[in-house]
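For practice. Any example?
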Amino acid sequence: MNNYPAEEFYGSGSPPRIAVVAPRNMRFSADGATSIDLHIHETVRWSQYRDMITVFAEEVINPFKDVDAQFWPKGADARSIAALVAGQVPDLIVVHQHLPTASYLSRTFPKTPVALVRHNFQKAPRNRISRFFKQRRMERLAEIAFVSECCRKDFQKNWPDVTSPVSVVLNGVDETLWQPATVKDPLILFVGRLAPEKGALEAAEAMADILREYPDWKGLMIVSTAPEHAGYAKRVEKVIAEAGGHIDLMCDVDHDTVRHWMGRASISLAPTRTQEPFGRVAVEALASGTVPIASARGGFVEIVGESGILLDTPDRPSLSVAMKNLIGDEGKRLRLAVAGRERVVPRYTLATAAATFDALVGRHCVREVTP
């Protein structure tokens, strides 16, 4: 972890103050943190500017306590968030995900650079008026960063007239924690939201098919649930119930539990049906020596490379064939597991991810060091 004294960077000058603003309706806590919350927490924790950063987020029970943070009450509007941020008198404001909040803060603090970190694709409205006003919001920003190269390229293709600098601030994992177990289990794992876009049903059906043929193997689905997908969840649960005990289901567990099972699993399924902006689950699998079978879409392509199986059509038959090939070829499975771990380290470690964030900070508020 890079915690260097401020004077090493600023000489006799005062160090900068950096405000990192989380989106509303997130959970800045180890209990139920979203991928955005994890990214903020881990990036700040590993940043060389850690002691100069305050995270601003929505109130939550049992928040992360190892970084400086202030909290607004549920239902707070942008004005209330701005008032909280103003108390820090920041030299740089980094807003995650929400363009309207970033735009509002850039107007409220006209002399302070405001950067936006997007965790998915920035869609371009078809309506010319909507596009015009959205572009005006983006033009106010000092920088727009994305969590993957594919998101950055997509943005530059769809928003060619935006003049704000565009960059990448990576996600990452702590490779000292995400590691393969000493002995891998004959286990196929799915981790993700219990939602149609994540391909949970296809994963469950393909698992059930392949486990009938290979009864010495097991399946495990670790899912986060949402009320709006209750009907879809019942369909997945029905497949699992009819699999004769070959597939286990865990719902809404903590990240330590996910890490434990990812370390033990031999194969991981990520059959996302939409463009994946990043694909953190693939990074976690590779770091854990688990071979991912993932959609050849979005961030999965740049993360997995040739260290896993990428499917153009991640449907039930394709998933079954890919699993069968890996189960039947232990040598290939082991080679890919080793290659995946070597690919993640150092490309997607927290040190690397924090370095991309620190570079953003350096571009906007680092003062010259006194000789």
Summary: Residues 7-172+349-365 form a domain with the Rossmann fold fold (CATH 3.40.50.2000). Residues 1-12 have pLDDT under 50 and may be disordered. The two ends are 26 Å apart (CA to CA). The chain has two domains: 7-172+349-365, 187-347.
